[in-house]
Amino acid sequence: MSRLSDASRRSAMIDIRPIGYVIGLLVAVLGMTMLLPMLVDMIEGQGHWYVFAESGIITFVAGALTALACQNGNRDGLTLQQTFLLTSGVWATLPIFGALPFMLGETQASFTDAYFEAMSGVTTTGSTVFVGLDDMAQGLLLWRGILQWLGGIGIIVVAMVFLPELRVGGMQVFRSEAFETMGKILPRATAIASQISVIYVGLTLACLMTYLLLGMGTFDATVHALTTVSTGGFSTRDASFGAFAGGMEYAATVFMILAALPFVRYVQLLHGNKTAIFRDVQVRGFMATIGVLVLVSSLALLHLFPHHWEQALRESLFNIVSIISGTGYASVDYMQWGSFLITLFFFIGLIGGCAGSTACSVKIFRYQILLASIGAQIRRIHAPHAVFSPRYEGRPLGEEVLGSVMSFFVFFVVSLGVFSVLLALTGLDFITALSGAATALANIGPGLGDIIGPAGNFAPLNDSAKWILSIAMFCGRLELMVVYAMLTVQFWRG
Fold first, then answer.
1. Mean predicted confidence (pLDDT) in 238-258
2. 33 Cβ contact list (under 8 Å, min separation 6)
3. What was the pLDDT predicted at 74?
4. 194 vs 226, higher pLDDT
5. N or C: which end of the chain has fewer CB within 10 A?
6. CB-based contact 5:59 (threshold 8 Å)
7. Annotation-wise, does 93 bind a ligand?
């Protein structure tokens, strides 16, 4: 009897070898990418290159050994539990090694600050604890950009492959769009990543060339191209995009919008479907939302300040797109724009871009499904004997999708409240605590107030607040439900 019980316990255990193998490979790749900032520092002659050499060796060896130790695991397919653990394990592990250059380099950051910065980078949040960016070693500035760029492409693959399969937060409505590659999750991820990578690199190069043509320096253009297309928002300047004026803001706005659109539509466009992007309900809703918000903001600015109409339009357009896409660049301190626009910017950050993009937050499709559900419910009230079914892109929405979306909204609001209270317990004022929780959970970047607003950063916060925000960034990037599902007893029972 004891032998049978032992065997059943072993069979019920989760095989972590496939998880460790994939995470090990990704960690090893992360170590190899450290060669790029190392070469930049060597060329600049700043004597900082050895930091990336040491960090790269540690990271590559750790990843390679982990992959070798787990290579005999079954990688033909992942169970539901393994997929949940893999998606969360990647985003928890990579910032640990991504933090090494910050701890060993000239910033000499504590593990708390370094992990916060790396988590903010990998999740493309864009919040920072570093000051003096204008004088920081170029290798470290490039490394921050690389972390966000790698996180951006990782987010697309997770959003297009893993989350629809896991039926997380209504993402299952996009299962039919995750290409026609049949098979298990890992083979499908490989097929999709190869096609997405070409588009992602192409957008990055186009953004880089545009910045260069508009007069931005080569290094600044490279880093900002990485953080624009990833909608990350890390900058090489303390003033963020305020250091660049005029046409540069329009260029950044275009690429932030392009990065916030569904990448699957770009693939379909390349395959000959010329109307794929414009027929997408998400895209039309996203663009319409931006148009309305920019109009309202521009009119408010013209009313409050004696701005030239072009300046009001440009500043409204750039900063609204930056916040709604989750990029987090700031060209001005919009805390000076008055209480109406400050409040508007808070809620803009809770909208987000399209699913299957590098954008973050709640996502526009969930609001569209919510409105469709409300509309159907109102029609039922007026005609109780009729049958009304909420629809999305012409397709009726099942109870599973509706329930998943509603659950996401509930979890998001509850999480926002919990993280806000936890931050307030660390001594932060109401505005800083609430906006800090929102910007971390929605992966936006800047918060509100004098401390973490567009003119500040997260350096003054204590370690407890930074760890709370790091956890919030992690939960928000994984669409909440993945993390909370693993906190249940049923998940571990299989």
1. 91
2. 146, 150
3. 64
4. 226
5. N
6. no
7. no
Cβ(466)–Cβ(127) below 8 Å? no
Rounded Cα gap, residues 116 and 75, in angstroms: 32
* C-alpha dist (Å) from residue 195 to 191, 225, 263, 271: 7, 20, 10, 11
The answer to whether residue 460 sits within a structural domain is yes
Reply yes or no on whether the pLDDT at 222 is more than 70.
yes
Helix, strand or coil for residue 398?
coil
Query: What is the C-alpha separation between 437 and 38, in angstroms, rounded?
Result: 34
Measured CA to CA in angstroms, residue 366 lies from 168, 314, 318, 442 at distances of 12, 28, 24, 14
Average pLDDT over residues 50-74: 92
Give the 3-state secondary structure of residue 216.
Answer: coil
Say if 35 falls within a structural domain. Answer: no
**AA identity, residue 338:** G
Phi, then psi, of 186 in degrees rounded to 5: -65, -45
Pick from 100-114, 237-251, 416-430, 431-445: least confident: 237-251
Coil, helix or strand at residue 348: helix
Q: What is the pLDDT of residues 264-311, one digit of tens each?
A: 889 888 888 888 888 889 999 999 999 999 999 999 999 888 778 888
Structure tokens at 103: 């701890």
- DSSP 8-state class, residue 397: P
pLDDT value for 76: 62
Q: What is the pTM of this model?
A: 0.91
342 in any annotated domain: no
289 is in an annotated binding site: no
Residue % of the chain over a pLDDT of 90 = 58
Considering its fold, how many domains does the chain have in total? 1
Number of CB atoms found within 10 A of residue 125's CB: 34
Which range of residues forms the domain containing residue 485? 400-492
- What are the φ and ψ backbone dihedral angles of 124, each rounded to 5 degrees? 55, 35
Q: Is 16 within 8 Å of 69 (Cβ atoms)?
A: no
Judge whether 124 is annotated as a binding position: yes
- Most distant pair of Cα atoms in the chain: their distance: 84
Position 480 in a domain: yes
Q: Distance between the two ends of the chain, CA-based, in angstroms?
A: 22
Task: Please give the single-letter amino acid code of residue 395.
Answer: R
* pLDDT at res. 270: 85
Backbone angles phi, psi at 428, to 5 degrees: -80, 150
